Amino acid sequence: MAYEKIAVPADGQAIAVNPDNSLNVPDNPVIPYIEGDGIGVDITPVMQKVIDAAVEKAYGGERRLHWMEIYAGEKSTRLYGEDVWLPDETLAAIREFSVAIKGPLTTPIGGGIRSLNVALRQDLDLYVCLRPVRYYDGTPSPLREPEKTDMVIFRENSEDIYAGIEWQAGTPEVKKVIDFLQQEMGVNKIRFPDSSGIGIKPVSREGTERLVRKAIQYAIDNDRPSVTLVHKGNIMKFTEGAFKQWGYELAQREFGAKEIDGGPWCSFKNPDTGTEIVVKDAIADAFLQQILLRPEDYDVIATLNLNGDYISDALAAQVGGIGIAPGANMSDTVALFEATHGTAPKYAGQDKVNPGSLILSAEMMLRHLGWVEAADRVVQGMSRAIANKTVTYDFERLVPGASLLSCSGFGDALIAQMA
Ligand SMILES: NC(=O)C1=CN([C@@H]2O[C@H](COP(=O)(O)OP(=O)(O)OC[C@H]3O[C@@H](n4cnc5c(N)ncnc54)[C@H](OP(=O)(O)O)[C@@H]3O)[C@@H](O)[C@H]2O)C=CC1
Ligand SMILES: O=C(O)CCC(=O)C(=O)O
Ligand SMILES: [Mg+2]
C-alpha cells in the first residue's frame, strides 16, 4: 500500500499472517512504531537501542528489525494537521505489518478528545490487553515477599464503559436519554436527573467468551494452575455478573471443566501436561485486597476493561511500579505492544524515567515473533541491571545504595549485561 507520510524501509519485509493465524516472520521484518507523547521521546529510542542490541547479540546480523515510524497523538497533529490525532494510514500500517509497538499517548481529562489508546484498540479490534506481572530480584516493593506475585492479566479491551458511550450533563442529548429511561423503561432511580451525565456499559457474551477463551488457552499453553474471573457481578448483575457466568459456561462447554463441590468453581485437566487447571472467580474489591495478602493464590486473571485497568497498575506497584510493567493489545491477527504507564508529562524530554516498561513490552514482541533467544537476552540484561542496583530514579529512591542512572544510561547498563 502507498503511504503519504510513512516511509516504508526498502530493505525490510512485512510479517505475514498464515490462515491458522500463526506468523510468517522473515529475518528482516518491518516493525511499525509510534514514538508516543510526553516521555515517549525518552523511552522509545532507548527501547529500540536495547532491542537492536539483543537481536544482534542473539543472531549476529542474520536477523534484524527494520523500524518504521508511524504517527499518532501530538506528533501526528504536527505532521498531518492540527485535528489529525490518529491518521487512517497509521491504522492501515498496523494492519498491513501485523506487529507494532507504541509509546504512551495523552488523553486530556474531560473535554471532547477521546483516548487514542482506546481508539487504536477498538478500531483494530485488539480485544485482549495482555499484561504479565512478575518480580525481578532487587526491585523495590511494598510487599515482604514480592516474588509471590506472578500473574498474567487478560483485560477485555473492546467493551465496558471504555466503549465511550456517554452523554454530558445539561445537554439536550442526555435529557433525551434520561426521558427515555424514565418514561419508557420505568427507571426511577436516577437521583439527580436534571444534573446527571449518563454512561453506558455494554458487555456481551461474544466479547466475554473470546477473552476468557484466550485466558484459558494461555493457562494451558503455559502450564498455569488457575484462571480467575474478576468481576463486580454482585452489583452489576447483567454486565459483570454475566461476564462471570459466561466465563464459567465457556470453561465447561469448550474445555470440559467440571464443577468442584457443586460449583461455581470448576476444573479440568490440562490436555498437554495433565495438571489440574482451576477456573474460579473473585469479586473485584475483595480481589484487590487478596492480591496484597495472598498473591500466590492467583495466576491467570480474566477481567473486564475498567477492572483490568485498575488491577494492572495495582499489581504493577507490587513488583516495582508501572515503570517496568509491560503489555500488549492483541486480536487474532494483529498485535500492538505498549507500556502500561502513560505519558508522565512532568518528566518529558528529561532522559529520566524508567524505559523498562516499553523494553519489556518489546521483549514480549520478540517472543511473539518467536525470537526467543533475543527476548531471553533482554530479560537477562534487565534482571542483572536491577540486581546490580544500577537503576532509574523510581527505583533508586527506594533502594538503599543504588546508583542513579538516566533513562538512556539504564538502557546502556542493560545492554552491557547481555551475554
Ligand atoms: N496506554 C497509554 O498510552 C496510557 C496513556 N495514559 C495517559 O497518560 C497521561 C498521563 O497519565 P497519568 O495518570 O499521569 O499516568 P502516568 O502513567 O503517565 O504517570 C503517573 C506516574 O507514574 C510514574 N511513572 C509513569 N511512567 C513511568 C516511567 N516510565 N518510569 C518511572 N515512573 C513512571 C510516575 O510517578 P512519580 O510521579 O512517582 O515519579 C508518574 O508521575 C494521561 O493523558 C493519560 O490519559 C495513561 C495510561 C496509559
Ligand atoms: O488511554 C488512556 O489515556 C489511558 C489508558 C490506560 O490507562 C490503560 O490502558 O492502562
Ligand atoms: Mg491504565
TrEMBL record:
Gene3D superfamilies on file: Isopropylmalate Dehydrogenase
PANTHER family documented for this protein: ISOCITRATE DEHYDROGENASE [NADP]
Binding sites annotated in the UniProt record for NADP(+): T106, H341, G342, T343, A344, P345, K346, Y347, N354, Y393, R397
Protein's GO biological process: glyoxylate cycle; tricarboxylic acid cycle
Keyword Nuclease in record: no
SMART domains the record matches: Iso_dh (SM01329)
Binding site for Mg(2+): D309
One Pfam family recorded for the sequence: Iso_dh
Organism listed in the record: Thiohalophilus thiocyanatoxydans
Record flagged with keyword Oxidoreductase: yes
Species classification: Bacteria, Pseudomonadati, Pseudomonadota, Gammaproteobacteria, Thiohalomonadales
Coiled coil: none
Co-factor binding comment: Binds 1 Mg(2+) or Mn(2+) ion per subunit.
Full protein name: Isocitrate dehydrogenase [NADP]
